[in-house]
Structure formats: C-alpha cells, structure tokens
Prior knowledge:
Layout: H1 2-133, H2 139-148, H3 150-182, E1 190-192, H4 194-204, H5 206-209, E2 219-223, E3 230-232, H6 234-256, H7 261-266, E4 270-277, E5 282-289, H8 296-299, H9 319-330, E6 334-340, E7 344-352, E8 372-374
Parallel strand pairs: 2-4
Antiparallel strand pairs: 1-3, 4-5, 5-7, 6-7, 6-8
The protein binds adenosine-5'-triphosphate and magnesium ion.
Amino acid sequence: MLSDGTDLQSRVQQLEKENRILKKKLARSDTTCLQLEETTRKKEALLRQVISELKESQANLEKQSYELEQTLTDLKRTQTHLVQAEKMSSLGQLVAGVAHEINNPVNFIHGNLRYVQEYAQNLLSFVQLHLTHHPNPIPDIQTATEELELDFIQADLPKMLDSMKTGTDRIRQIVLSLRNFSRMDEADFKAVDIHEGIDSTLLILQHRLKDKSESPAIQVIRNYGNLPIVECYPGQLNQAFMNILANAIDALEEANAKRTYQEIKENPSQIIIQTALVDSTWVKITISDNGTGMPESVHQHIFDPFFTTKAIGKGTGMGMPISYQIVAEKHEGKLYCFSTLGKGTEFIIQIPIRQKICQADPPIFSLVTASATSA
Ligand SMILES: Nc1ncnc2c1ncn2[C@@H]1O[C@H](COP(=O)(O)OP(=O)(O)OP(=O)(O)O)[C@@H](O)[C@H]1O
Ligand SMILES: [Mg+2]
C-alpha cells in the first residue's frame, strides 16, 4: 500500500518533471517560431525589394529598347534621306549638265539651218535660172551636171534640210524636257502643270517604251483631266513619276520575256496614266500597268528601303521608298499601291493643290483591285 503511494508520488513527480521539460521545450519552440517568423518576414521583405528592383530594371530595359528602336528608325530614315538626296542630286545634276552641254551646239545647228535652207534654196533657184537661160551648156558642164545628178539634188536637198530641222526641233524639245525634269535652274517650290512633268518624264523614258525587235512598243495611254496648277517640288515629283514609270516598264518587260512578239501584239503592254481633280484641295494621279503584278509577299515590302526583287546590280530597292518620301513626307500627300499577281499594278498619288492650307485627309476613293495595301 505504502509502496503504491510512493510509486504514485514518484510517478507524479516524474510527470511534473516531464511537464516542466515540455513547457520549457514549448517556450523554446515558441521562441524558435518567433525567430522563424521574423526571418521569414525579413526574407519576404528582401524578396519584395528584389522583385521591385527587377521590375524597375525591366522597365528601364524596356525603355532603353524602345529608345534603341526609335534611334534605329531615325537612323534608317536618315539613311534613306541621305541616299535619296544623293541619288536625286546626282541624277538632277547629271541631267541638267547633259541638257546644258547639248543645248549650245544644237542651238548653233538649229539657228544656222534656217540660213542654210535659204542659201540652198537661192542656189537651186540660181541653177534653175541658169539652166532655163542656157539649156545647152558646153559638154564639160553637161557631163558634170549629169554626174551631179542635179535633178535628184534639187528634189532631195529641201527634204533633207526639212528633216534636219525636224531633228533639231526634236533635240531642242528633249533638252527642254531634260531641264524641266531636273528643274535645277529653278527654285525648289513652285506652282506647276503636273502634266508637263509627266510628259517630260515619259520623254526621258521614250527609249524604253518604243518598238524593239523582241517586243512591240509599250502603249502609253494618257487620260489627263482638267487639273489646276499644283504647288509642289517639281523636280522631286518628277523623280517619283520616273521611279513608278520605270518600275511599270520593268514589270512589263518581265512579263513580255515569256511572250512572243505576236502574243504581245495581240495583248499589248500598256501603261495608263490618269489624272483627276479629287476635290477643291486634292489632285490624283493614277499610273497603272498590265505587267507581272506582285504577290502579297512582295507587295507588303515595296516601300521598305533596299527591298528589291530585281537582279543584283539592276535594282537598288530605293525607287519606292524615295517616291513614298517625296509624296507622303515632302508633299504631305498619299501614295497607294494596288496589285494583282499576273494582272498588273496600280499606283495612286494624291497630293494637295496648295501645300500649306490643306491639312484634311483626301476623300476615300473606291478600291479597284483585289489585293490592296496602302502606305
Ligand atoms: N509596277 C510594278 N509591278 C511589279 N512589281 C513592282 C512594281 N513596282 C514595284 N515593284 C516591286 O517593288 C520592288 C521595289 O521597287 P523599287 O522601285 O523600290 O526598287 P527597284 O525597282 O527594285 O530598284 P530601284 O531602286 O532601281 O528602283 C521591285 O523590286 C518590284 O519587285
Ligand atoms: Mg524601281
């Protein structure tokens, strides 16, 4: 009984001891828990700080990459400007130089031809008069007259002089067109007749339009509307016409390479140039060809600098971006391109009649072909 009481007491004491140990352990684990919580809080704070710093640096990176993109765009634009300026000024100077060099000698010939014509006429009349009064000259003169084939000379010389005059007239007209094209001798900004610019550009390209052994001439159909004079940079606008027309000729030549002379004759190559007044503030020039047309993959990129589908050394890929810059940036106009593969291509240029007043967008025109992209 006594031993039972002692056992119980010692058991209670043991339990109390264990209880104390447990309490101590609990107190310790509470402290550890608190410490852990504290550490977690610190780590969380650190993590949050790291995340916020990361976000900040990501934002900085995004900003820098945006700035880089901007710089790249600016650089590309500057590069295009430089190439354009170089190409235009060298072409303009070359054309103006050639025109100037031809102008003087052709004027000598043209100016003197009138007198040559008059003197020849006088001489022929004199010979005729002489023959009338001396129908039977001495044998030597008779032989010389026959050898000379005087009859033929009398008939042919005036014709020859006439055709020489036509030739010099034509050269003078070409020189005038070259000057008109380059407009080097005029102030940049002018109110001009757009049709004159198109005509002189066509004249410069005449050698590529005419009949060749492998293909008949390219038909150029001009449907000119009644346009007022337009304020523009004529030399530059002519450059845009030139680029678009040269591309049309390239596309027609490419299409013709796969056709026989007869096939082309039955379905002639055509460039149609149409001009019209859109409203009181805008004019529209449409240049279309029935050449190769373009697939969408080419169509999407035609205004990208240095994009070309032509053979190495043939195309620089700058014609379209330059034209776009001239029309859209320099003249605050619009340049649209519509193309259908296998059918042809149409370029539409819209420019304001007056450069400063006109700020409104041009009216929307109806879309004519299936595949259409505007720049
Ligand atoms: N009328 C058109 N018909 C078919 N493709 C065209 C036409 N106009 C432009 N293109 C396409 O657009 C591309 C770019 O034209 P762009 O005038 O800019 O360069 P390019 O003619 O190749 O070279 P260049 O700088 O000598 O003009 C051409 O290579 C061609 O593939
Ligand atoms: Mg071109």
